[in-house]
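YM 10:42: ABC transporter permease sequence, as discussed on the call
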Amino acid sequence: MNTDKVYKKLFISAKILVFFIYYFSGLDTSINFSDVLYYTTIVSLKSLFITIITSFFISLVFSLQIVKEFLYLDAIKLVGTVFAVSFVRELSPVLTSVVIIGKVCSSFTSELATMVATEQLDALFILGIDPIRYLLFPRIIAMVLGLPMLNLISILTSFLSGSFICFILYDIHPNFFFDSVFYDNLILDLSKSLLKTIIFAFCISIISCVWGITSLVGSKFVGVSTTSSVVICLITVFILNFILSYVLFDNQLSSFQFS
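YM 10:58: structure's back
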């Protein structure tokens, strides 16, 4: 990656951050909300099926691995708590983000890179339209709105599928499972989980859009930019997840004392 391209990415990222500071301070409200609604639908509704399928089967596998161990230790009352802590704090936010990176962020990058390759951005400049405000901001806002909603659905799906497999294979009644799922810290953990996904959404949407709009001219660079964007987004989520988990949960009291 040459120096000019790095500076261009940094400049566009800085411009996005400045816009959001202006927007949330009430100094600038010029956003096309019909575009925001359109992209929110893409992020949330059109990604709902793959999110549910992913959460369902991951929770089934997770249950298969942990429940028999807790049965062996005669600590069955902790199964729901361990399950909830794992999915609410870590698995659902990360898995949902990974799914969205593969499905939505990649499409954001490829769409914008294609517009660069076909010189559509030049046409916007000629018309006096700021492509960053017109193309990027609605996508970023939609991602920030849509990803937390998908995270909640992922958590709910994992709870239901976990209770199902526990009942079918290990004869653990759903009432017993959910009694231990709803531990005292659950609401606090849910709020922190949503905060995680908001931060994830903001970062991966900026990366995917910036990588698309700074793509080199030429059809072959569409694939290059998309692949690079997905890799950077994944690495960003994994690094941020560790940092946020340490900041949000390291000093929190153990959930087992409330079980």
